[in-house]
Amino acid sequence: MIEPSTTHYVINAAGPLQGTVAIGGAKNSVLKLMAATTMADGTYTLYNVPNIHDVSVMCRLLESMGATTSRRPGVVEITIADLEPVAPFALVEQMRASTAVLGPLLGRFNRVELGIPGGDDFGHRPIDMHLTGLETLGASFTATADGVSGTTDGLVGGTVRLAFPSVGATENILMASVLAKGTTTIRNAAAEPEISDLASFLNKMGARISGSGTSTITVEGVDALEAVTHRVIPDRIQSATYMAAVGIAGGEVVLEHARYDHMAMVCQKMGEMGLRISPDRDGIWVSAPDRMRSVDISTLPYPGVATDYKPALVALLAVADGTGIVTENLFAGRFRYVDELVAMGANIRTDGNHAIVRGVERLQGATVTSHDIRAGAALIVAALGADGETTVVDEGHVVRGYPDLAGDLTALGANVVARAV
Ligand code: UD1
What we know:
Layout: E1 6-12, E2 17-22, H1 27-36, E3 42-47, H2 53-64, E4 68-72, E5 75-80, E6 86-87, H3 89-92, H4 102-109, E7 111-115, H5 128-136, E8 140-144, E9 147-151, E10 159-161, H6 167-178, E11 183-187, H7 193-205, E12 208-210, E13 216-220, E14 229-231, H8 236-249, E15 251-256, H9 264-273, E16 276-280, E17 283-288, E18 297-298, H10 310-318, E19 323-327, H11 337-343, E20 347-351, E21 354-358, E22 363-364, E23 367-370, H12 373-382, E24 386-387, E25 390-395, H13 405-411, E26 415-420
Parallel strand pairs: 2-15, 3-14, 6-7, 10-11, 18-19, 22-24, 23-25
Antiparallel strand pairs: 1-25, 1-26, 3-5, 4-5, 7-9, 8-9, 11-13, 12-13, 15-17, 16-17, 19-21, 20-21
Bound molecules: uridine-diphosphate-N-acetylglucosamine (UD1).
């Protein structure tokens, strides 16, 4: 099991990247599929499961409710029986994606307890859309000492209009509506590939969902579901991280199993920057013949450029030719890593939800700190374009999303050493 200990990633410049890297299963999909297993008893087998810490946290969360789980490389097996629909605060606070059990547990058991940081003020917390949507289907929520408690006399289908296409709210409402009576329509639904993966998993279990991957999802409620096996879609954020690595270090790499169709917009943006990208037989081929050119980038819900790609894109712009303006439209204050890039010699100014990135020829090695999964990965990738040695001090964030970032980059010819401290 991967445990998030403090790791120093020590990076030195190396030649262009060459070779093939296998892209693993999507973190943001597998965690939701695991949450969905709570909806029917039986034994589930998930394939293409990344060996990341967040999967371990979700295993523990399911076990705390009564499930049993076992893992072998790339596979997690989950047996659901006699569940108690209570998600304890101590586990939920470790990982926001734990909130994905809310809808499934409520839909199946007509009650749920979810420990959640700031739960006593949940009306103003960013799960307000999850709760309002579930209320539309007949749930009632009350604040508890450390979270929320939900009950219902039985969910009934209805029309939920999301004020914003929230990924988490769409998933919770989708899962809850599968066992509701009648038809549910989710309007302004999020359309991310991970939601389509969840819908296809649920449909295999016996659900009747149509329209996933579009802004209107329709669910015909069913009485019962059954356990299934499923292969998780590849991680598009990991894929984009490695594309940025090629853009920064140069070279030619095949991202085995990566799905171009899940990444069309970010591929288009990186293509405008000068990366050559094309779908390969089972993956994506990428090469960087020259220094990148700057472009402007705005993050948007799918099919727009995902906010999770942004740190790697900013790292790429930091060494591109020209000036690019990056606008964050999803989360406030997601520019903490910019100070670290500046410490490496990048020329970046932030103003509210904008970052103005003036590309420099080379960054300089420095000791910098990673504050979250994607920022940590972006700093490691940025260091591929730095003179001298860079140390990225990471308190267990990177292993939450990347099974072996240092190993993968090293296999492509980079010089990255991960040292547990
Ligand atoms: C998921 C992803 C995350 C990604 C994000 C957007 C997982 C585990 N995480 O997060 O990596 O960055 O989608 O693509 O899949 N909001 C509210 N109220 C709500 C729900 C959301 O105000 O009830 C706001 C959030 O604060 C944020 C925005 O809506 O500003 C988008 O959030 P959302 O799409 O829900 O992201 P997550 O599902 O949390």
